[in-house]
Amino acid sequence: MSVTDAYGTTESQNSPKPTGPRRLATSIRDLTKEYVLKSETVRALRGVSFDVPEGDYVAIMGPSGSGKSTLLNMLGCLDKPTAGSLCLGDDDISKMTDDQLADIRSQRIGFVFQSYNLIQQLSVVENIQVPLYYQGKLGPKERQRAIELATRVGLGDRLDHRPNQLSGGQQQRVAIARSLVNDPFFVLADEPTGNLDSITTDEILAIFDQLNEEGRTIILVTHEDDVALRAKRIVRLKDGMLHTDEPVAESDREAMRERHARAVAELRARE
Ligand SMILES: Nc1ncnc2c1ncn2[C@@H]1O[C@H](COP(=O)(O)OP(=O)(O)OP(=O)(O)O)[C@@H](O)[C@H]1O
Ligand SMILES: [Mg+2]
């Protein structure tokens, strides 16, 4: 028998009872972002509010230009809001200086981009260590951690390869390992499977599933329903505003996982 908590999480009755609501990974309130150009002001976000509890897995969807990347960039401390508040845990990052944001970014955020953003001159292991390098940490312990993460994402036999010696899916796995090296507060991914074929997409989504099962909070932007249905919740933006915010039923997630697995098996059989 199972019970469902306020966030829709199903807990076995044998597991310890939660002592209160789950902590929030992030809390977004009336978030506004305006880009002032020469002849006009673009209102990319127009008062977006929602919370993400720790351990959640959120897909952000919406038409092109609806503000998805703008929102993710602010969560990732890559950009600052014009107005509103944005808390990571207990810290309001909307008022922080650029230096403070840079510290938070390198210490607490994992970011995965559609185009991988790896450094071509560096090997797989070195690319994974980049966020630690920015924190001045570059010893044998850090290298060992990078090797463990490379192995975890299935690249244990590619440690000294350069990005241009890897497939797109392998490059994205390096980017995921890099995003985990600072043991981040959450992993943010902007269309992480946008450049990948369906087999590789499934491999990447399986890694996200695993990370989330381990308790890691994931916020991912996607245009694809198939990808969004692997998340626990879908937030849709429209014209810079929150349009809908709906949970994904566990049965729908399971059905999508099975559908992907079947499609991959069929494609592999044809190879
Ligand atoms: N640096 C910028 N300067 C000016 N306008 C910008 C800037 N970045 C984004 N915008 C504008 O803000 C709006 C939201 O852009 P954003 O990149 O967040 O959309 P998106 O939902 O991620 O779209 P897509 O699905 O195409 O990636 C768009 O109208 C865009 O043109
Ligand atoms: Mg975008």
From TrEMBL:
Name any GO cellular component annotation: membrane protein complex
Endoplasmic reticulum as UniProt keyword: no
SMART domains noted in UniProt: AAA
| CDD domains referenced in this protein's UniProt entry, alphabetically | ABC_MJ0796_LolCDE_FtsE
Signal peptide (from-to): none
Which residue ranges have biased composition labelled Polar residues? 1-17
The record's region (Disordered) falls at 1-23
An example Gene Ontology molecular-function term: ATP binding
* Stored InterPro entries: AAA+_ATPase, ABC_transporter-like_ATP-bd, ABC_transporter-like_CS, ABC_transpr_LolD-like, MacB-like_ATP-bd, P-loop_NTPase
Q: What class of enzyme is it?
A: hydrolase
A Pfam match: ABC_tran
Keywords, comma-separated and alphabetical? ATP-binding, Hydrolase, Nucleotide-binding, Transport
Q: Where is the ABC transporter domain?
A: 26-264
Known EC number: 3.6.3.-
The family this protein is said to belong to: Belongs to the ABC transporter superfamily. Macrolide exporter (TC 3.A.1.122) family.
Q: What is the protein named?
A: ABC transporter ATP-binding protein
Q: Which organism is it from?
A: Rubripirellula lacrimiformis
